[in-house]
Amino acid sequence: MDPTPPTPIDPSASSSSSSSDPSPSPGHAIVCGAGVIGACTAYFLAKKGVRVTVVERCSVACAASGKAGGFLALDWCDGSPLGKLARASFLMHQRLAAELDGAHRYGYRPLDTLSLVVEEPRSGTDSHHAGGSEVVNASTPSVLPSWTDGPVKGATPIGNQTTTAQVHPALFTQAVLSAAEAEFGVRVIRGEVEELRLDPHRMKLLGVVVNKELIPAEVAVVALGPWSSNLSSISDLTRISGRKAHSIVVRPKSSQDLTPHALLLRYKTREGKQLAPEVYPRPTGEVYVSGMSEEAELPATADQVKPRNEAVAMLRRVSETVSSHLQGAELETAQACFMPLSEDGRPLIGKLPNVEGAYVATGHGYWGILNGPATGAFLSELIVDGECKTLDLKYFDPARFFRNNARRKDCFL
């Protein structure tokens, strides 16, 4: 059977039409993956004048980039290696929202953020919503939005509209990639990335094998989330794993009372189980609820990830407990995704050791949407200028795994 050639893909949809393969030319970069990291990398590379092709097997933002909460925080990573990256990226989100009309195109808005302690009432007790019994810690009643009328035992502000914000992650990723296409000529094609083809004598990138065909390029960026380890260029260096996370999107009958708040819960079920769900109303009138994560086997492709029914039922139960406004809300989406995790908890952002032209950007865990813009911008600076002067990327250098594991060195020598 003849190999299937890569075909163009519409960033706002999963359908695509056929077209000829991109031809080789100096300064051609291939970004593998059309999630938030790949989209931002393509955008900033192309903005610097690089000819960019993005290759995506499924659809734009089909994995965690389309199913995350889209929560952004300025200073929550302070004191960790992620601190400066996160601060820079939070400010980049503000600038991108201004440039791309983010408020209307992908729901960018500042938020007030609360930490709530919620305990489900035991079976047989009175109604736990307003007009019933216990509701709010008397010391903090004023911080609770009116629609949060469930059995809240305590409420603590942990972010305000200067330090926390949100985007709709799928719409954000699509908007960035669409802007990269329209403004800078980025090309997005459908296909399976099978290999980074190297010149074995010089350890220099020749191109990327997509659907059994080599697309020549001087630069390749692997941004495939937990599927990055499917490429031997990555798996020979380190392991990128995935943790399965569930979420739902519900649409209440009326959203006029839903204020711009993010709720991070310490939630105790009536059976005594402790959970850490999160509830984010969106400006579109829907409400995103997440918090059921677990170890699970990574399927072959992102479109094969399916939610577990018990997890979906629990998230519905959480939403209806926290707010009477969410009782009977329409379930628009029940979904799951895999958050990409590195071996040491830090993302990989940089050049693959001893391979000219090959780069990786993955392993961002639960902060991928937040850190997407800075990752794309700083990696582009490294690729085009030869170094990143804006931020020292040493904490994220993929070579840290090369240096720490003598066995893996043999794979790159």
TrEMBL record:
<dbReference type="Pfam" id="PF01266">
    <property type="entry name" value="DAO"/>
</dbReference>
<dbReference type="GO" id="GO:0016491">
    <property type="term" value="F:oxidoreductase activity"/>
</dbReference>
<dbReference type="GO" id="GO:0005737">
    <property type="term" value="C:cytoplasm"/>
</dbReference>
<feature type="compositionally biased region" description="Low complexity">
    <location>
        <begin position="10"/>
        <end position="22"/>
    </location>
</feature>
<protein>
    <recommendedName>
        <fullName>FAD dependent oxidoreductase domain-containing protein</fullName>
    </recommendedName>
</protein>
<feature type="domain" description="FAD dependent oxidoreductase">
    <location>
        <begin position="29"/>
        <end position="382"/>
    </location>
</feature>
<feature type="region of interest" description="Disordered">
    <location>
        <begin position="1"/>
        <end position="26"/>
    </location>
</feature>
<keyword id="KW-0560">Oxidoreductase</keyword>
<dbReference type="InterPro" id="IPR006076">
    <property type="entry name" value="FAD-dep_OxRdtase"/>
</dbReference>
<dbReference type="InterPro" id="IPR036188">
    <property type="entry name" value="FAD/NAD-bd_sf"/>
</dbReference>
